[in-house]
Amino acid sequence: MEKRVLLAVVLSFIVLYGYEALFTPPKPRPKPNAAPAAANAPPPAATPGQAAVATAPAAPPPSEAPQPATPAVAAIVSDTEERAVIVENDSVRAEFSTRGGVLKSWRLKKYEDSSRQPLELVPTTVPPGSVRPFSLTVDDAAITATLRQALYKPSATELHPGSSPATLTFEYQDASGLTARKEFVFTPDNPYLVHFSADVRRGDAALLPTVEWGPALGSGIVASSRTYSPAPQPIFYRDGSVTRVKTTKIQENPRQEGVFGFAGVDDHYFLTAAVPIGQPLVVAYRPVDVPIPGGDGKTVAHFVEWSARYASAPKQARFFMGPKDFDVLASIDRDLVRSIDFGIFAWIVVPLLRALKWVNHYIGNYGWSIIALTVIINLVMFPLRHKSVVSMRRMQEIQPEVKAIQERYSKLKMSDPAKQKMNVELMNLYRERGVNPASGCVPMLLTLPVLFAFYSMLSVAIELRGAPFVFWIKDLSVHDPLFITPVLMGITQFVQTKMTPSTADPMQQKMMMFMPLVMMIFFIWAPSGLVLYWTASNAWAIGQQWLTNKLIGPPPPHAVRPPAERRVKSAGGGKTDQAKERK
After folding, report:
1. What is the distance in angstroms between the CA of the first residue and the CA of the last residue of the chain?
2. pLDDT in tens, 378-428
């Protein structure tokens, strides 16, 4: 039974790592700067009773932004020159531009990039003229070009939201009767959330704008990994389920519409999304690959352009730009936490994550916090594991008698009625010795959900991103640079396997001794936080096995010919066999 449990654990991890290895991020396209063929197609005609929607796939590429078809019109309300408007709080430093009234930079102060600078969520490697977040487009290409190139007049040049909400507005008006107004509201309790309103009019007629986000998310550089996928991808929550779309599948269905809990683009740790409250929304996506400046021409950055169009002009529409931190997301909307891919054991992962953060509140180091939580969990599961080990030992003690019974019936076919006597004899033997065959594996099976939940948690928890442990481990979310912890994990698992009682035959036992080596190879590129947890679990199992062996003592010696083998008649029941038994 314990052999099946061990095989189930091993096969489960092979499936997990096999999935990560097979479904790697897409390779660069041959023509990274080429727009999809559908990009230049005319927008779809509006259905009766519904306004035509300008979606991202139907819009011109950023490098081919529409230009005004008529001479420039004199501005009445505008800024004199392009300049930056800074909005800064304890968590974010944002930079808006008066050119188009768009967002140019959104840096997260509490998270760093590879150069140890505040992490930038607005791509900086996109070509000049690319669409920036909070750009507005309408059905008229000339008006859209004017809205993008206009110099908006800001309400302030610098804003520092404090204990109360702060508002930043951009306004533009020209002699043709075109007026545009953008309003951004920042609240102190949700530093990563922006309430956005927009109003565009041509004379007395209100125009329905689409909020263009442009390329997202971050640097677009996809690091090679088997434990997580940092590539940006479309994500939306609708009808009670979360959908993630691979970039290679976007063109199959680039437009989504309905009532969303949220919709946008995310990567492994961060998210930019519209968070409507029961409002119908049309969201459009388009993959964009951009050559890396100064690169070899083959390396490209992968982005996903997206846009959102509301049923009416957006008013206090919520947009989130920040980390996929459970508490941060939950403070905004409970549905938003579904953007974190906790897997099928989310009901266990969430309590584990809260427990890890609680432990870290006192310890202050996530590496030691993982070890401490591992000890706590194993203390809780100690009775189950102890019972399992004791049952395995009892099964090991009666294994010669079990094999003797099985050998006497080995030549009979499964359809032979006499074969059923073997099961009767085995059950009688278990009853006489007080052994339950299922008691060895059932306790172990009960611990598997916790094991997989811990794996899921450590794979997606943003708390481990950039979190140091000791000496050479500077980031628990990436692999051990010196591969010391995977080697320790392999050694401890080998010792644990060596100490664990087994009822398998000698050949199978030798095969099981190779499993620590296989697991060590699988874990070489795993996040060091996950390897640390597995190593700590192995070390605890070794100590628990030693203690259990002390408590129950060494296994008793077995007789060469167990009494059961002499008492029980052979399966054939013939005279020859009976005569042999009398002898």
Report:
1. 36
2. 888 888 777 777 777 777 778 788 888 888 887 777 777 777 788 888 888
| 253 and 142 part of one domain | yes
pLDDT digits (tens, 9 = 90+) for 124-171: 888 878 899 999 999 999 999 999 999 999 999 999 988 889 999 999
Say how far apart CA 370 and CA 364 lie, in whole Å.
11
Rg (CA), the chain: 32
The amino acid sitting at 277 is I
444 backbone φψ class: left, alpha, beta (φ>0; ψ -120 to 50) = alpha
DSSP state of 471: T
Total Cβ atoms within 10 A of residue 495: 16
Domain extent, residue 166, equals: 75-341
Rounded to whole angstroms, what are the CA distances from 14 to 60, 455, 540?
44, 13, 23
Pairwise CA distance, residues 73 & 178, whole Å: 10
Please name which of 346, 263, 349 lies closest in space to residue 309, comparing C-alpha atoms. Answer: 263
At residue 84, φ and ψ (nearest 5 deg) are -100, 145
Structure tokens at 495: 């010792």
Is the distance from CB of 412 to CB of 571 less than 8 angstroms? yes
DSSP state letters, 8-67: HHHHHHHHHHHHHHHSPPPPPPSSTTPPPGGGGSPPPPPPTTS-----TTTSPPGGG---
374 and 420 both lie in a single domain: no
Contact 564, 400 (CB under 8 A): no
User: Quick one: 462 and 404 in the same domain?
Assistant: no
Q: Do 182 and 167 fall into the same domain?
A: yes
Total domains present in the chain: 3
User: Do 237 and 285 reside in the same domain of the chain?
Assistant: yes
Specify whether the CB–CB gap between 345 and 238 falls below 8 A. no
